[in-house]
Design a protein that fits this description.
By secondary structure, the chain is an all-beta fold. Helices cover 0% and strands 47% of the residues. The strands form two sheets. Strands 1, 3, 4, 5, 7, 10, 12 and 13 form an eight-stranded mixed sheet that branches. It is elongated.
Length: 217
């Protein structure tokens, strides 16, 4: 399937308006602070958008982000679609392992995929994330409208002063919940098929979680 220029949905939102109680404090944010190494593990995977074996995680070589890659994440509606295919979701738990003395928060998330939407149809991506043991945050919807037959991208960003960091000295996994929805709208579902993916057919179409690192005191 041909993949052309990215259709950018430049929407920013504060994702983690929650508090982290207890734990050792961390120094003020210092741009450019990165640990000498870190690893990332996929702890659990659940959801119709990520059947077993279809999601993976990896750290970025420059230690500023980690990526999530999906291979079977597709929502569709119309001809050939099943009655529950209009909505797909994925809930994963990720463990970020770093040297003692470092902690992290998620500063920005870039979501990517492909959309084929008939005229009058629509698609929507939304996501949220939170540290294990904390309250789930609200998700911010990113809508797309047909006609569309192109790559899509949506970004969520958190201002520096609002980034929530994992507690120093405590292992806290981060939960990431994503969702794709597709609706026929005014298109004819008997004669058209509309779909939206968050997948890795193109190696560049990974979901990227940009990290902000701090040193613990």
């Amino acid at each position: 399937m041909a993949r052309r220029r990215l259709a950018i949905a430049g929407v920013t939102a504060s994702l983690l308006a929650l508090s982290v109680a207890g734990a050792t404090t961390a120094t003020a944010h210092s741009p450019g602070v990165t640990p000498p190494w870190f690893t990332v593990d996929l702890v659990t995977v659940n959801g119709s958008g990520c059947p077993a074996g279809t999601a993976s995680v990896a750290p970025a070589p420059d230690r500023t982000a980690f990526t999530v890659t999906y291979s079977n994440y597709l929502a569709q509606v119309g001809r050939g679609a099943g009655p529950t295919d209009f909505r797909k979701n994925c809930q994963i738990m990720v463990r970020v392992n770093a040297p003692q003395g470092f902690t992290y928060g998620i500063a920005k998330a870039d979501y990517r995929g492909y959309a084929s939407l008939a005229a009058g149809a629509w698609g929507k991506e939304q996501a949220n994330y939170y540290f294990q043991g904390q309250s789930q945050t609200a998700s911010i919807p990113h809508p797309f409208h047909g006609p569309m037959n192109d790559n899509w991208q949506a970004s969520d960003a958190t201002p520096i002063g609002s980034i929530v960091y994992a507690p120093c000295g405590a292992a806290r996994d981060v939960a990431i919940n994503t969702q794709l929805n597709v609706g026929a709208g005014t298109s004819n579902p008997a004669t058209t098929t509309s779909f939206m993916t968050m997948d890795s057919t193109d190696a560049s179409l990974t979901t990227i979680y940009h990290l902000s690192w701090r040193r613990c005191t």
